[in-house]
What we know:
Elements: E1 2-4, H1 9-13, H2 17-24, E2 25-26, E3 35-40, E4 46-50, E5 57-58, E6 74-80, E7 85-89, E8 92-96, E9 101-104, E10 111-115, E11 124-130, E12 138-140, E13 148-150, E14 159-165, E15 176-182, E16 188-189, E17 194-195, E18 199-206, E19 214-220, E20 223-229, E21 233-237, E22 244-247, E23 252-259, E24 268-269
Amino acid sequence: MQIRTAIGPKESASLNSQALRENFLIEKVCVPGEINLVYSHYDRVIIGGASPTTSALELPTYPILRSDYFLERRELGIINVGGDGRVKVGDEVYELPFMACLYVGKGNKKVVFESVNSATPANYYLLSSPAHQNYPTRRLLKEEASPVEMGAVETANKRTIYKYIYLEGIRSCQLVMGLTVLAPGSVWNTMPPHVHDRRMEAYFYFNVPENQRVLHLMGEPQETRHMWVANHQAIISPPWSIHAGSGTSSYSFIWGMAGENQEYTDMDPQPVDVLR
């Protein structure tokens, strides 16, 4: 597990492109045959992927956690962005097709990831945060996630938002998680942008066509920076930073938050005319 320390807005404003990527971009999330994780000091979240191929992968614990098992003091959100898969939690097996979500609560000792077909393997995006109590393990399919249409063709940001883990959906201690699918011809996400000092956020981009990229914007509204992001790469977004982007084609992304509260609408909007 890689460890990323937290840095502030003044330090981030002075970083060049390579240093920005080293601090905030996770370039390899889905590694075939591996569980690949990053521990961030922003709200102690763990971000990563599990990509089983011919063999199942069991979620281990890590020295930095000082725990007997991974979920001893944590909760976990899982979204499949690959072929059909199944996740075993204890003795229960949950089928997870493309874009399905599984929440696994604190106290579950064994989590195992599998692909139904190794020729079209599953790719599980993982987001974990500290937890103080146990909520039930629950699966939610994309069709059950009460999709909400937002944006418009005229502003190139027509999109569908699927909310999975939040106060009115799957209950958790502090994890909030869902995904957004941009319509063909739309490229802008989270615009106008916002910040929320009460919680950090992580973005995972998928459905980005080969040889296309997403220009991810971060930083304070008056001191923005950017990174070019490819398919199956993730961004660590600090609480003080905006998180928006525009692609060279349409794409999808998973958003996840942890911190002070779980209010989906808790955000401080930043009008476009204040951006620099």
